[in-house]
């Protein structure tokens, strides 16, 4: 289900029930692109039932799904259509179009092609852990996560959220683990990324390597810092954690939900995978808080506009 987690602490009151959350999300429900729109986005049911509620609450966590639909206009096709209009303009006027006419021809071309363009949909999942007040978006990309937050704000009325941070730097914990310090629940995996302290453009990446090799560790001893580190958490979940607390490449040992067979209901499989993920994430956040002195006390700079 989720392969990445970019997390935010939420300071706005969250709807108390699945029904209330689904109701507020319906204010920004997904609507397909109309003929002359390039993009449309909104909330849809995360279940297999398209008419189902717009969220699903299980074991103290909410599952949300944002759908973005775009009209696909191939650059080459647009260019060719513009060239045809320019040629027609020259034939009618006997001269090349000026800057203003060229802009008009491009706009007319776009407007004529949009209704014929193919539609493409992308879906972005998010989860909210009620016990932690943490919203996690299934992306490693900050702009994609902000896209989801931008559509959650009008649904909730307002949303005060800040990127998840701890009192002590995550990078410090990653370095201690990398250099061999034992921390309960965490085992070093086979992937890491380092960066020169004085030059952000200078970095090194190791994948599928034994990271306890002395020659690899020496880079950190000599001054490079760990920016990403592959870990096995609690002998259950492998992942890569970055110094800004983004989790990527999530994979569960033995598969997503071992107690659900292939012939069982897809909704049961999704529910089992979601409960496994959220339960593991809750334990991981508690262990990170324990080792990093808790969450950062910094909150939103100021309430956002409604």
Automatic annotation (TrEMBL):
Q: Which GO terms describe its cellular component?
A: bacterial nucleoid
Tell me the InterPro entries matching this sequence.
RdgC (IPR007476)
Kindly list the places in or outside the cell where this protein is found, as annotated in its UniProt entry: Cytoplasm, Nucleoid
Q: What is this protein called?
A: Recombination-associated protein RdgC
GO MF, any single term: double-stranded DNA binding
Q: Which gene encodes it?
A: rdgC
Question: Which Pfam families does the record cross-reference, listed alphabetically?
Answer: RdgC (PF04381)
State the superkingdom.
Bacteria
One Gene Ontology BP term is: regulation of DNA recombination
| Record-linked PANTHER family | RECOMBINATION-ASSOCIATED PROTEIN RDGC
| Principal subcellular localization | cytoplasm
State the similarity comment. Answer: Belongs to the RdgC family.
Task: Provide this UniProt record's keywords sorted from A to Z.
Answer: Cytoplasm, DNA recombination
Q: What is the lineage of its organism?
A: Bacteria, Pseudomonadati, Pseudomonadota, Gammaproteobacteria, Chromatiales
């Amino acid at each position: 289900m989720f392969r990445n987690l970019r997390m935010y602490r939420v300071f706005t009151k969250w709807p108390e029930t699945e029904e209330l959350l689904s109701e507020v999300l319906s204010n920004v429900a997904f609507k397909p692109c109309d003929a002359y729109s390039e993009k449309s986005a909104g909330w849809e049911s995360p279940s297999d039932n398209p008419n189902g509620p717009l969220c699903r609450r299980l074991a103290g966590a909410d599952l949300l799904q944002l759908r973005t639909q775009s009209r696909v206009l191939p650059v080459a096709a647009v260019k060719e259509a513009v060239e045809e209009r320019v040629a027609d303009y020259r034939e009618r006027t006997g001269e090349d179009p000026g800057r203003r006419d060229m802009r008009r021809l491009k706009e007319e071309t776009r407007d004529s092609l949009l209704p014929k363009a193919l539609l493409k949909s992308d879906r972005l999942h998010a989860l909210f852990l009620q016990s932690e007040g943490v919203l996690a978006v299934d992306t490693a990309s900050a702009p994609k996560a902000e896209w989801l937050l931008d559509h959650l704000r009008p649904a909730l009325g307002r949303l005060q959220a800040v990127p998840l941070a701890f009192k002590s730097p995550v990078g410090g914990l990653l370095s201690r683990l990398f250099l061999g310090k034992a921390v309960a629940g965490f085992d070093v995996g086979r992937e890491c990324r380092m960066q020169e302290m004085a030059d952000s453009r200078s970095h090194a990446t190791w994948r599928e390597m034994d990271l306890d090799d002395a020659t690899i560790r020496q880079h950190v001893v000599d001054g490079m810092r760990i920016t990403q580190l592959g870990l096995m958490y609690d002998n259950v979940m492998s992942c890569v954690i970055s110094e800004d607390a983004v989790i990527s490449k999530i994979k569960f040992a033995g598969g997503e939900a071992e107690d659900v067979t292939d012939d069982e209901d897809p909704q049961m499989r999704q529910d089992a995978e979601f409960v496994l993920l959220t339960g593991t994430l809750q334990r991981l956040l508690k262990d990170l808080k324990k080792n990093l002195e808790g969450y950062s006390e910094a909150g939103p700079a100021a309430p956002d506009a409604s």
